[in-house]
Amino acid sequence: QDSTDDIEDVSLFDADDDVSRRSKKSKIRHPVASFFHLFFRVSAIVVYLLCELLTSSFIACMVSIILLLSCDFWAVKNVTGRLMVGLRWWNQVDDDGRSHWVFEARKVSAQGGRTSSEAESRIFWLGLITCPMIWVIFAFSALFSFKVKWLAVVVMGVVLQGANLYGYIRCKVGSRKNLTSMATNYLGKQFLRQ
């Protein structure tokens, strides 16, 4: 565990208290962010699935998929994570050349309420978890069907979407906690309950 990981509890927005008092259980407050959170992810998967049917140019398909994956990575990391669940992460390098990972979470309001809606949170986490799993399935499919040229594209999908998933999980659970020990404790509790 790197001791230079930081988690800061800072306000991500200059939001008024009136915003936090509104009911946020089921309504989507950021429909454009919710749309683009899923649009780039799903579009990259659809283009991958339909690419060989629509065109014979591997280069055009590869560029289209990687462009969609890159747009997704940027949108999720810089926009939708902040708006939909109040989390963000990044890496910064100090003057000595050391790399520091910073994980931030939006402060909870004074009333103890959450400032993001449950619907947006479900959309965010469902898209964030499901799509990398689909790319992993594509990776095994490309590997076992000997489609080596597609393997590079699929690996890019796994890496870009997996990096966002890892970063947001670290934001959610805290950077100081070891994810492996948390998973072991959770599985141990589930085993004891049964």
From TrEMBL:
Gene Ontology terms: biological process: protein secretion; vesicle-mediated transport
The keyword Membrane belongs to this UniProt entry's keyword annotation: yes
Keywords assigned by UniProt, alphabetized: Membrane, Transmembrane, Transmembrane helix
Superkingdom of the organism of origin: Eukaryota
Subcellular location as annotated: Membrane
One Pfam family hit: DUF846
Major site of localization recorded for this protein: membrane
UniProt cross-references to InterPro entries, sorted A to Z: TVP23-like
TM region(s), chain numbering: 31-50, 56-76, 123-144, 150-169
Any one of the GO CC terms: Golgi membrane
Membrane topology qualifier: Multi-pass membrane protein
Family of this protein: Belongs to the TVP23 family.
Protein name: Golgi apparatus membrane protein TVP23 homolog
Origin species: Picathartes gymnocephalus
Gene of this entry: Tvp23b
